[in-house]
Design a protein that fits this description.
With about 500 residues, the chain is of the alpha/beta class. Helices cover about 35% and strands about 15% of the residues.
Length: about 500
Amino acid sequence: MASTKPSPRHWRNRITGQEDVDPESLLANPMNWRVHPRFQQEAVESALDEIGWIQRVVVNTTTGHVVDGHLRVAVAISRGEKSVPVTYVQLGPDEERLALATFDPLGALAVADDHILQELLKDVRPYVADEHLTKLLSDLARGDLLPIGGEPDLDGLVGEDKAPQPGLTQGDGEGLDGIGQEIEQQEPHVLEELQKRWGTAAGQTWAIPSGKTPGKEHVLKIGSATDELALGPIASYLGHGSVIVTSPPYGMGQAYEAGFEGNKPPPKRTRKADRGSPDRLGGRPTEAGVGAWLELIDGFTRIWSERVSAACINLADHTVSPIPGFARHTYGDLVSLCEQYEWRLAATRIWHKGPVWGNNAYWLASYKPVPEYEYVGLFMRPPGSPKGAFPYKAVSERVPQSEDWRFRSMWEFPSVQSQQMDKGFHPAAFPVELPRRCILLLTDAGGTVVDPFLGSGTTLVAAEGLGRLCVGVEQDPTFAAMALERATRLGLSPRCLNKND
């Protein structure tokens, strides 16, 4: 009887070439799932110091992505190496994902012959002086490896919890949200009185001595975030490692946004259920409105990218368009503009804030769903940047294990009431928890946080609670007065440095 076993497939050679290239030119694979804790990074760097290159980085010519060797590339960039050896392969997108999913796990399934391993380690260890390699070899000798078939524990991989406990918890932030809403939820004439009492006006600079960082001050500038002259004196407050944490306007026709003056006013309320608000000028976004938004974000990114090394930017991708039936992805615009000014997108978190009913006119008459989430983009200057790279530190060293969101891509916590300026609310308010998480991810105690769109001061509140300093810019004197009032509720004493008599 003839065999029905299929003929063996011949293995194809997918290698197309080899070359030494600048590591800065290599693209990290967006589907790379490997996590390398600090001790592994140090051990790889030490091994390269001792031995040099003995294995090439693998790059797929079809996509330009690294398939194998991400850690070696990262170490080479951090060390300022001018070239790394690369092997080029040609894989389709599906084959690339298969390679990422299988090659390393299959190698990890190899079972060690303990007798031979111990003999090898006995011969090698006397000649190794580097502390990181010594530790790695000692761990191998003790058998401190992940069990075969076991699932790695992220907290176990990063070792003991090195991150300090934050001085401001999520529960604390929710309490401060209540204080903020108490200040904001006032009749419009009360807000006018609040502004008069503080005497806030365009061009002023306010210093707010910090209670958590003695001898240091928060700064509030009343002016335009993209005005070079307004930013001039603020630049002196920024040092190496300053980061942006902000939520910029996103072209939805708010009263403080340019380019929407031609829109029709919102309809008058006809019944109690109507939730229209005078803070929105109404109508669909115009070409002028979208253009003004892009100009604002371009100017903000261009100016501030010269002064800080990283940014955590919250933006709702409203996919709005002047043409019904089409969409413009505002978060995609932001990513593209940031890349022009050497801010690489390092990660994206999704903030699930729950459904926000009644604050968006477009979903009522279109296919647009009710807004339930927003984006939080982390942008950083890459290693080797002539403007100075972001001072990278592992998340586990900045955010403690008690903060269970630290490695998660989905953040779930409710928003605060907004979109009703006629009732005294800031029309785009967000909870303290949002800047609290961003600040913890990107800064250490005593660091400087910049919010070019400070609004009613939520980022300043979070920074003070965490022992960081905030440098804020707000163009509306009424919102600036709200921020100053919130600072006094924290026991702080703002003073104006250039108040007109």
